[in-house]
Amino acid sequence: MNFELNLTIEELEKRTNKDFLIRKPMLNIDSKEYEELNTGDKEALKHLVRAAQYANTIYMKQDNELNIPFLHFLEEEIKEGNKQAELTKILFDAQLGIIGIDSESKKVILLKGAKELEGKAFYPSDITKEELHNILKTMLKNGEKEEVEKILNQRTIVKRDNKKLKAIDYTQEFKEEFNKIAAELIEASKVSTNKDFNEYLVIQAKALKENDPMLDAEADKKWASLQDTPLEFTISREQYADLLTGSVIEDEELKNLLKKEGITAISKDSIGIRVGIVNKKGTQDLLKVKKYLPIMAENMPFKDKYEQNISSEEDNLQTMVDVDIVSLRGDEGSYRGGITIAQNLPNNDKLSLTIGGGRRNVYHRQVRTNNSEEALERRRKRLNATLKESLHKFYNPEADHWFTIGHENVHSLGPKNGTEALGKYKNIIEENKADMGSIALLDCLVKEGVYTEEEKKQILVTFGANCFLKAKPELSQAHRVRTVMQAFYFIQEKAINVDENGVINIDIEKMIPTAYKMLSEIIEVQLSKDFNCGEKFINDYFHWTDEINRVSIKLKEIDKSLNGIIITPLADYLLKD
Questions:
Q1: Sequence-ordered alpha helix ranges (H) in 105-231
Q2: Domains present along the chain, CATH in parentheses
């Protein structure tokens, strides 16, 4: 199959230049974390890294039906000495696909004529939103409830079946890859030194080979209970990419039919894999916050109106680990405008939470830590250009990690059920909730001695200074849209001010009350279980104002980077062995 490359040599040389392509190095070959592992765990790590590689193929197949053929085309062209193809492949490997997005929210399209689809490759590439809605309505009226339920399930790929649609479970669609992952997990379980971890690997391997959601639930339940293990292995399933499934509630007739049949549309899971070594000291620091989760739950707005994952009386179902990253693959490793620094899983739609399973926070040390000279210089320039000088003493990169700890914990707080009704806005609103909860509940943690007053100020100023982007994002970028909404909200509430020169001033005393006010609005939206209410919330606060734009202009002058790529030296070494 022949393809036409979209980006010119000049554009490719620019985007792959070290000033424009951020390199994020994961754990190195000579790291003490690896050297200190037992022999059995080192051997297990090889199998886990091999297992992770297959996630790239699965993710690319989910993302765009042309990804794999295009990759093969690039590889053949490179053999022929095609420099344009060689540079294109660097970006393809970074974003893991023919279409990505850069840090300035511009589409990076590597294949001429390619278009991004709301349903990615989870749905037929030629299906429109309206056609999907009409087919589903017809199927429901014809009594095909069970198939519609599968179509709107998070673990299926949807294909055409004459004038209808049919759903294929992930275990069937990706049988070859899942079987290979399962085989590596079994081999790892034979040599790893931790009994609990080995039990999880065996359960997870079985879940990959059988079309049984309950097996997934058992694997998630076991994974979420792991605390004292030397290694980390996660098969993540996140729903940010699929914007088509949630659209079914935008059609009033279809929404009513689904409600009548008791069907909840759940966006499709993108598959990713994380492999790492658990950092004991970092994990101990995280666990200091764990015992205060019930207090945080008790201080959430409208807490009596909903059930949340964390009980206000006790918590035995939340584990936390800080991890030195060896490999990020699939959805975990696709660098599209940014990369995940932490996760709280399983998400609320997962079956494990209904059978007594808990949740687990995993933090990515290598992703959040960058103390290179270039990074330090960019930070210094950013502060000098955009933050009021008297506030510089409160800016602390480590405070961003403290904020993230709060963010991930708040994902376990707030309404546990019903947010699927918010459709394509669900993720934006949930990420907003996690951010605002992290700030709004700070005084509780200061009172309990988790943070000092000085550290609280550092969290507030660092959050406020980081609340600005280089460019206005698209609605599909949930994490970035929520950042713009927060900047707008805090400016409106006069907790943050931007002067005519694009310099940010922060009223520290107003930050927490403003966050609690926004958090309360968010919880009300989630409790409404109303798509229109969610849409109004987004429309009210997602505004790219002159103040925000003044800061963005400065940020673009300071930071030229557009794309990023994960570098995994230890994983690459283990794959060769």
A1: 129-141, 145-151, 170-173, 175-191, 195-209, 213-225
A2: 31-52+117-369 (3.30.540.30), 370-544 (no CATH)
